[in-house]
Amino acid sequence: MAGELTSGEASTWRLIQRLSDLATGVVEHQIRSAADLSAAEFDVLRCLVEAPERQLRQNELAALLGWDKSRLSHQLTRMQHRELIDRQKSGRVHAVAVTRMGRQKFELADNAHVAAVRSLLLEHLSDAEREALERTAAETAAPAAAQPAPAAQPSPARILRARIS
């Protein structure tokens, strides 16, 4: 079904966007306030804390986060300078482990994360509504996750420069 969204569909979409933006902003603010962590740092630490022995190979971490190697490498360098993680290289294997300080900050941030998610969303949903939302999200995300990552598209600025030259 192509064409324009109905006014009801457009309204639903705008509400979902606003809720997503609000929730993301509030949760990120709470995490930063509680533990002085960015959302990216929190995500990295979450993966490490949940991993066996609280460490992962760098390529495993990149896959879990859905990040490219360059983005992860830059993020890990910043986190290593803040003593949140430790990196070790053994041959061609790069291992990343959470430090004591990283665990402590993660625990503070995780408590703030849980409280924010509950107060923003979960406390406002019945069990049936939450289950319906989970089902819809899972059904929507599953086909997208199965698709290969889209090829990198040139930026609008690059397209414009190409047209000008």
UniProtKB/TrEMBL annotation:
It comes from the Bacteria. Residues 30-130 form the HTH marR-type domain. Residues 138-157 have a biased composition (Low complexity). SMART domains: HTH_MARR. Pfam families: MarR_2. Residues 133-165 are annotated as: Disordered. One of its GO terms (molecular function) is DNA-binding transcription factor activity. GO terms for biological process: response to stress. Coiled coil: none annotated. This is MarR family protein. It comes from Amnibacterium kyonggiense.
